[in-house]
Write a structure and sequence with these properties.
The protein has helices at residues 20-27, 30-33, 46-54, 68-72, 99-103, 109-118, 134-145, 164-169, 182-188, 198-201, 214-219, 221-239, 244-254, 261-268, 298-310, 319-329, 332-343; strands spanning 9-13, 38-42, 60-64, 82-91, 93-98, 125-128, 155-158, 175-179, 192-197, 206-213, 272-273, 278-279, 286-287. Helices cover 42% and strands 18% of the residues. The two termini are 35 Å apart. The longest helix is centred in the middle third of the chain and has 19 residues, at 221-239.
Length: 358
């Protein structure tokens, strides 16, 4: 296939372990194989990603699950025909609390509720990466499982993933919900421990998706389909535990994540140390392909809508409009148009390359 005659496809992402399929597709030449020139853009936080999608500074992004729907609903007075034609991963998050909370007897949400009741003079503060992220849903559901009202009994603040560990270390927050490597980094520095991970709290939830726009999908269809095909092949590769050591080396070689090999291995290869007891089996900490992970089904969209409604992100009066827009946002038709003719024959790519190590 020949290289694209258009300008490069600019894809944004945040420095997280679960951006692995994007980095692997780039490193193994899968975009080039599909005839697409891609430019990766490391972003500071999800608010920046949102703004750049809105104003066309990014063509697409490795994104939190709930970024696209609010753009379609014209929340905050602005709108964009955002779509989700591909899902990168299921699961992949953990809740991390400070070691001070451990020393004060917190072991789960119920014991955290007891601590809150015994210290009414203090309002505990917990970090999430965005209100429309699975991290917000996970944190709220975990709190509610212990009888804690997330709207009254604690304070939830939004922070970029890269600032979570520093804020915890400085005592600015008492815990957070985020993707790795930041949970593992907090544990390795002795400032945090993880009471629960996605797999235990909300198993199989969609976490990271490809967000783009109807405009890009229509006007640059060949490149759009090529990106999906490359990402599909990369997710097949990343999902295999036997390939995870190579995935770690590719992430290290990229230079995008400032984390050691040991920290990156924690959630991809294992064991995942929660600060109390290592978890040996991490095969489902991230699900990059199994269980229909990559398909942007309407059921995944319905799950997202239900979470938005449950946590007050959409007023009840907008329910019918939101149900219409979420179906326009999650696009299995675009996924199948790009993927179906290759899915049956796709085999993981193994490309020998000299990697920079740290």
């Amino acid at each position: 296939m020949t290289a694209s005659r258009h300008k490069p496809v600019r894809i944004g992402f945040i420095a997280l372990t679960d951006c692995a399929p994007l980095l692997v597709a780039d490193a193994l030449g899968l975009f080039v194989k599909q005839g697409v020139e891609v430019e990766l853009s490391l972003e500071i936080g999800w608010a920046t990603v949102r703004e750049k999608i809105l104003y066309g500074q990014l063509d697409a992004a490795h994104s939190i699950v709930g970024l696209g729907l609010p753009l379609r609903l014209q929340q905050n007075g602005i709108s964009c025909p955002a779509i989700v034609p591909f899902v990168f991963s299921l699961n992949g998050n953990a809740i991390t609390l400070s070691m001070d909370m451990w020393r004060r007897g917190v072991r789960d949400a119920a014991s955290f509720a007891k601590l809150i009741r015994s210290t009414p003079q203090r309002l505990f503060t917990l970090g999430i990466v965005a209100q429309t992220s699975s991290h917000n849903f996970l944190m709220r559901r975990w709190l509610m499982s212990g009888g804690i009202d997330p709207n009254k009994d604690v304070r939830l603040v939004v922070l970029p993933p890269t600032q979570m560990v520093g804020a915890l270390s400085a005592g600015l927050i008492d815990g957070f919900c985020v993707s790795d490597p930041w949970n593992s980094l907090a544990v390795s520095r002795g400032v945090g421990w993880c009471p629960v991970i996605s797999e235990d709290l909300m198993p199989g939830h969609p976490d990271k998706v490809l967000v783009t726009t109807e405009t890009f999908a229509d006007e640059r269809k060949v490149e759009h389909d090529g990106v999906l095909r490359a990402l599909y092949e990369s997710c097949v590769f990343c999902d295999k535990i036997s390939n995870r050591e190579q995935v770690v080396e590719i992430i290290l070689s990229s230079g995008y994540l400032r984390a050691s090999r040991e920290i990156l291995r924690a959630a991809l290869v294992g064991p995942f140390d929660n600060g109390v007891k290592p978890r040996e089996d991490v095969e489902s900490f991230y699900i990059f392909h199994r269980d229909g992970a990559n398909q942007p089904t309407h059921s995944k969209g319905a799950w997202l809508l239900n979470e938005f409604l449950a946590h007050g992100l959409i007023p009840p009066g907008m329910r019918e409009l939101a149900a219409i827009e979420v179906k326009k946002c999650y696009r299995p038709d675009l996924y199948h148009a790009a993927i179906d003719d290759m899915a049956a024959t796709t085999k993981p790519v193994v490309k020998k390359r000299k990697l920079q190590t740290t």
